[in-house]
Description:
The protein has helices spanning 12-32, 48-53, 94-121, 145-168, 172-180, and strands spanning 45-47, 67-73, 76-83, 86-92. It is of the alpha+beta class. β2 and β3 form a beta hairpin.
Amino acid sequence: MKPKTNQSAPSMGGNAAFLILFSLFFVFPLKSQNPVVLHPVVGDTIDLIEKLDYLLFSDVPDSLFNQGVLTPDGNDYKLTVWHEGDISKFDIDREEFEVLSGNVKKLSAYYQQKTATADSSAVGNSPLITRDSIPIGLNIEWMSEQQIKKMTKESRRYNQLKLEADEQGLMGYDRRKYIETGGRMEFPLAK
């Protein structure tokens, strides 16, 4: 009787070839797809806030950007952008990458300097003046509710007159007079 042989099992040479092909097609390309760090401040994943703060990727509309990742693509880079489940890819050349990296460096230094200046001058120089924090010697007359209502009504009327003058096609002196006279045009009588 012949011993049974398992003919469905691959040979060792087949396993090695499979592993080599697997690593060539999947592992090495993935290794080159590691995200690239534009600058340590923003990291490898850039979100919309960082895009706006550091003025990044002006070619990509803000409405289509939730987050993005830069990956190498030969000598250049590929920006992969995610937005509400959609994925878009944009080409970034090496020069643009260097410019963006320099912008992040400059703006981060500016923001750090601005924060340091604000922290040192925060004591005593509040830009917001409230009724409770009036500096000594500064006499402020607060508006009453009646004054606020009158001012609101007048500004609404002024804006309405400007709109009406624009609709009538008035320009220059005629427009100004129309607004100043409350919409009543005065015509001099000929003698």
